[in-house]
Amino acid sequence: MLGIVIASVLVIYWAILIPTQYQNIAATKEESRKLGKHHNEINEEMSFEQQQLQYNLQGNLFNLPATLVAMLIYKIRNPEKQ
């Protein structure tokens, strides 16, 4: 019973986090296009606080499922020509 409750809470958490992750991914890609720089170059120019916020949002393994789903949705909605 406890496992079902924990799993339900995690699924709800990830479902709520997906739009936030999507907006972050879209904003990062848009900024990269505007500035004509790669993601790493933009990160180097960020302040320490911004880098930490970005790392906590994208780099946390607990947020990985939401990040993967958000990235998949972004790639489907915005196919990039290679």
From TrEMBL:
Pfam families named among the record's database cross-references: DUF3949
Superkingdom of origin: Bacteria
InterPro entries, A to Z: DUF3949
Protein name: DUF3949 domain-containing protein
Organism (species): Ornithinibacillus salinisoli
UniProt lineage: Bacteria, Bacillati, Bacillota, Bacilli, Bacillales
